[in-house]
Amino acid sequence: MMSNTDERLVRMANQIALFMETKPPGEAASGLASHINDYWDPRMRSRLLFLATESEGDALRALVREALPAIRRPAAERL
């Protein structure tokens, strides 16, 4: 079961995806990843990437899942 914070992160990512789905296919996933990389706190990005690997990842829109490889992991996790 997801916490309220996790639910909000998934909802926010899905809302961004819904907007980005109006863009041309080649721009949608990269635009979503760029937005998350530029505006989301490293803890938020880290948690989203974690949730995507868990069963909660099923709640993410396809475009969010497509953008995951381009979402930067916070520096502390890259070690």
Automatic annotation (TrEMBL):
Protein's recorded name: Formate dehydrogenase
Source species of the chain: Haematobacter missouriensis
InterPro entries associated with the record: Formate_DH_dsu
Highest taxon in the source lineage: Bacteria
Pfam families membership: FdsD
